[in-house]
Amino acid sequence: MILIQAIIQPIRLSTVREALEQAGYGETMAGDATGYGRQRGQVATFRGNEYRIDLLRKVILSLIVDDDDADEVIAIIRSAAKTGTQGEIGDGKIFTIPVAEAITIG
């Protein structure tokens, strides 16, 4: 089993979840995240003053899949999460983590 964690733009969450559900991967968890990568935050102006916003709002989407399904799930997420035709800096990252066992509580 593989734990796939995708850190994506909040505006792409519903699109990514719908694409995963249509492909049969409906069991996902989502949570808020903040951080930055290569884009290093952004500069905003408020009442004439410039402020640097270093930590940008993101969403972290997690799901566990069989090893054989990992490449398909990654392709679905990459396709649905990108904001431009080629994708843009800040669209996110995908991490894969081996899972030895998943135990249901209850």
UniProtKB/TrEMBL annotation:
Keyword Chloroplast recorded: no
GO biological process: regulation of nitrogen utilization
A cellular-component GO term for this protein: cytosol
Alphabetical list of PANTHER family matching this protein: NITROGEN REGULATORY PROTEIN P-II, NITROGEN REGULATORY PROTEIN P-II HOMOLOG
Superkingdom classification of source: Bacteria
InterPro entries listed in its UniProt record: N-reg_PII (IPR002187), N-reg_PII-like_a/b (IPR011322), N-reg_PII/ATP_PRibTrfase_C (IPR015867)
Sorted UniProt keywords: Phosphoprotein
GO MF annotations, alphabetized: ATP binding; enzyme regulator activity
This protein's name: Nitrogen regulatory protein P-II
Record PTM O-UMP-tyrosine, positions in chain: 51
Pfam families membership: P-II
SUPFAM superfamilies in the cross-refs: GlnB-like
Gene name per UniProt: glnB_1
